[in-house]
Specification:
Strand order of the largest sheet: 1-2
Helix content: 55-70%
Order of helices and strands: HHHHHHHHHHHHHHEE
Number of strands: 2
Largest sheet: 2 strands, antiparallel
Radius of gyration: 19 Å
Distance between the termini: 37 Å
Strand content: under 5%
Shape: globular
Oligomer: single chain
Length: 318
């Protein structure tokens, strides 16, 4: 259930080199997250591979739990426990034959990523093998702390954030980005047997699981989505308070990522809250326009130029 390098155009036998391991991580991120890949390319050159290694490691865990038809929950849990053991051992200096783990372990050691944060992330991934509903938002918060908030904390390490006041906003940004994905992926998550909208919220607006299964979009669903979007935007506002703690050079790509992910909410609204018949994604031209807009609003962050997909270019740290 591990990622197959050949699926990304790389020879599994040629991944003894650490640089090749990082290159695999880059290809994984590009394949799975076009939005995050665009913003990652705006990081300084020495930071980009670290961000991609973190993403690829998380993708390894996601691949285990996001394909429920290919394995039983017990097999998924066992695979996650193996992944956690091998990763923690590699971070502590042990060997590993997994190229993604090797790159992430190198990043974790070099950047001082706390192994407790890695453990919190894996704990949430394990929750996906046995928990498919969250009765309250407080219950969901336990899950998103490990699956999203600690990702923000690990990013702080990668970016060299040293001010402890950045921790709460960094965690909030990770949570807001994941909640945005939850709202966009309601239909896909349902097909996997999961609901990440708190059940108390469904009850508040009189919307049922049967309605969800049938993809009903009515005044109840619209009211529910407006409620969830409003909460997510408040969390983004909290995250914004931490931007000033990010070192110059890494701040701009975080601003872009924050804006691109919050655009998911706008796409949902523009689609009339239809998250069932089509995925409300942001097209590449719009992503580039958002990056350019962020650059115009934050000119002091920009000291060089970097080409983006499609031949566009944006100023960014060198």
């Amino acid at each position: 259930m591990r990622i197959d390098p050949e699926s990304y155009g790389m020879d599994a036998g040629g991944l003894d080199d650490l640089d090749a391991c990082y290159e695999l991580c880059r290809r994984i991120q590009k394949a799975y997250s076009k939005t995050y890949y665009v913003s990652t390319r705006l990081f300084p050159r020495e930071v980009r591979p670290r961000v991609q290694a973190l993403y690829a490691f998380m993708r390894c865990a996601d691949e285990i739990v996001d394909n429920p038809g290919k394995s039983t929950p017990q097999e998924q849990l066992a695979a996650l426990e193996d992944l956690e053991r091998e990763t923690l051992d590699a971070i502590c200096g042990g060997g590993t034959g997994d190229p993604v783990i090797r790159a992430f372990a190198d990043t974790a050691r070099c950047c001082g990523i706390d192994t407790a944060d890695v453990g919190s992330f894996m704990k949430s991934m394990k929750m996906d093998t046995s928990i498919s509903r969250y009765p309250t938002y407080e219950a969901l918060e336990e899950y998103v702390y490990g699956s999203a908030a600690v990702v923000g904390l690990m990013m702080c390490r990668i970016m060299g954030v040293v001010d402890g006041r950045a921790r709460r906003p960094a965690g909030a940004l990770g949570v807001a980005m994941q909640l945005s994905n939850f709202l966009r992926d309601i239909g896909e998550d349902w097909e996997r047997g999961r609901i990440y909208i708190p059940l108390e919220d469904l009850e508040r607006f009189g919307y049922t699981e049967d309605d969800l299964a049938r993809g009903v979009i009515d005044e109840r669903f619209v009211a529910l989505m407006r409620f969830e979007i409003g909460r997510t935007r408040r969390i983004y506002a909290l995250a914004d308070e931490g931007m000033r703690y990010i070192p110059r050079g890494s701040r701009f790509p975080v601003i872009v990522a924050r804006r691109l992910y919050s655009e998911i909410l706008e796409r949902i609204e523009e689609a009339g809250y239809d998250v069932f018949s089509r995925r409300p994604d942001t097209p590449l031209p719009r992503k580039l326009a958002v990056a350019a807009s962020c650059a115009a609003r934050n000119p002091s962050e920009l000291v060089a130029r970097l080409p983006l997909p499609g031949g566009a270019a944006i100023a960014t740290p060198s």
